[in-house]
Amino acid sequence: MFGMDLGIDLGTASVLVYAKGRGIVLHEPSVVAIDKKSGKRIAVGEEARSMLGRTPGNIVAIRPMRDGVIADYQTTELMLKYFMEKAGARRWPFYRTRVVVCIPSGVTEVEARAVKQAAYQAGAKQVEVIEEPYAAALGAGLDISQPTGSMVLDIGGGTTDIAVLSLSGIVCKQSLRVGGDKFDEAIMRFVRREHNLLIGERTAEGIKIAVGCAIPDGPANASIDVRGRDLVSGLPKTIQVSSKECFVALEESVEAIIGAVKEVLERTPPELSADILNKGIMMTGGGSLVYGFDTRISRETHLPVSVAEDPISCVALGTGKVLEGSY
Q1: How many whole angstroms separate alpha carbon 179 and alpha carbon 154?
Q2: Which of 3.60.15.10, 1.10.3470.10, 3.50.50.60, 3.30.420.40 is the CATH number of 3-134+316-324?
Q3: Which terminal residue of the chain has fewer beta carbons within 10 Å of its beta carbon, N or C?
């Protein structure tokens, strides 16, 4: 009656909030719009995201999370407070809000403490921090309590986390600051270099979702009309970007992730390697939805690779299992 349990996937691109007993109650972009003169919050989430790259001089749209960690502490606190209240948490004297927050597996102790502190400042009475690949494995429905190896590859907005888990713990792990944001940046650079066209983050994300591809033999004739500013004439212009061009743009980031997967497999104890050979690799996170990514990893590692049923929500669902103690 006087408390609430919340699981928060505090991502670089989006925030998902899980309320105990109700499931995922909130899924919004991690963007905050602030008035520079007064310092007041104007909008948070979807409303603020629509302002990215379109604000007048006195308003700034900020993404307070970068590469999976807090880049702007005060704005993160503002955002957390807003999302917790929207999910139903209250700031009353006797109201207890217990929060489980996810962090990438490669963060430092200082970065982890900053996340914890931001949650306390936002109104939480009890805060627990868990690692993203652990939560992703739980959310994807893997049984990690047994003495058998399970491998998870979680590709988020700011980071990619790879881990081998057994007996409810992480045996070996690797965290890369490569994710959906780096994919968008690579597409922006490619379009600028090849077509002399300047595009924004939202347009690059649209290209990635529509024709993003991790294998050269992608969907046939898939292309998208892209609008931006011509760097030569300075005028608005429309071009077509194909899935083959997208494959070239994303290749460097895809190679970095595959290299990290191989590195974790090299460090895995032989007994657990045998289990992974049978069970394969489970992919979670929004980045796993890039066309052919699972096929590409399977070709490179010779292991079975599957994508979770709801890859974007896996980490948040995992925090829910931690809250409910069903793991």
Answers
A1: 9
A2: 3.30.420.40
A3: N
Sorted by where each begins, the domain ranges of the chain are 3-134+316-324, 142-178+253-309, 180-205+219-249
Helices and strands counted in the chain (H then E): 10, 18
213's tokens: 């591809």
Name residue, tokens 């700031």: 91
Q: Residue 96's pLDDT is what?
A: 82
3-state secondary structure 258-304: HHHHHHHHHHCCHHHHHHHHHHCEEEECHHHHCECHHHHHHHHHCCC
Q: Which residues of the chain have pLDDT under 70?
A: 1, 93, 220, 326-327
pTM (predicted TM-score): 0.90
Q: How many CA atoms lie within 13 A of 248 on its CB side?
A: 10
